[in-house]
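Lecture 7 notes: from sequence to structure.
We start with the chain below.
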Amino acid sequence: MSGTTMVVLIVLISVGSGVIYDMYKKHLEFKQRTLHENKEANQQVAAVTAELLELKQRVQTLEAIVTEPSFSVKQEINKL
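Predicted structure tokens for the same chain:
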């Protein structure tokens, strides 16, 4: 193997290693950013779910009030 070939191979290996290292760093940054975004999305889903449960409870309470017999009597009295 000549000296020129050896220098070319060393340069190619060095450049190739640098490119692979940069790709790996970008991959780790992407993975970390994705995990962070998933965490935020999960927090938003949890907040919306809690709000939905609260609204369901309020609707159930309102349904109980409207369907009880004394409610219709009160409405008729108020009309008079």
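Points to note: The chain has a mean pLDDT of 89. The helical segments are 3-67, 69-79.
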